Amino acid sequence: QVRLVESGGGSVQAGGSLRLSCAASGVTYSSHCMGWFRQAPGKEREGVAITDDDGSAVYADSVKGRFTVSRDNVNNALYLQMNSLKPEDTAMYYCAADLVADDILAPTSYRAWGQGTQVTVSS
Questions:
Q1: What distances in angstroms separate CA 76 from CA 17, 34, 59, one per listed residue?
Q2: Which of 9, 35, 41, 123 could cross-link to 117 by cystine, CB 3.0-4.6 Å?
Q3: CA–CA separation, 77 vs 18, rounded Å?
Q4: How far apart are CA 45 and CA 38, in angstroms?
Q5: pLDDT 10s digit of each residue in the chain, 123 long?
Q6: 76 CB contacts (<8 Å, ≥6 apart)?
Q7: How far apart are CA 93 and CA 77, in angstroms?
């Protein structure tokens, strides 16, 4: 059974940085597309950054140039480095794995989810 545990969220001022981590277990880590999603109050969950097992990455337009996703296949970990944070980045951030459909930025394409970690950016 896949288990994902996020950490690293917190409160920062605009322009600051945070690094999120996701510890994965119960999955053939290196063979799966994994990524980060976020959901703000009253909004739908959206894809932020996805990485494939070859290390390639896809980003939402809103975070390009500011966020970097990376993975450590040896330690079964996924990371999201977030720089130049903006108040609109405030959301619950989720790690996702076990891709079952083609649209890698769609939340419905993933079967495994973590519990989320809160990121709050103040102006």
A1: 23, 11, 21
A2: 9
A3: 16
A4: 6
A5: 889 999 999 999 999 999 999 999 886 654 478 899 999 999 999 999 999 878 899 999 999 999 999 998 888 899 999 999 999 999 999 999 988 888 999 999 999 999 999 999 999
A6: 23, 24, 25, 27, 29
A7: 15
Using CA atoms, how far apart are residues 99 and 83, in angstroms rounded to an integer? 27
How many C-alpha atoms does 96 have within 13 Å on its Cβ side? Answer: 28
Q: Which amino acid makes up residue 46?
A: E
Longest CA–CA span in the chain (Å) reads 41
CA distance 36 to 78: 9
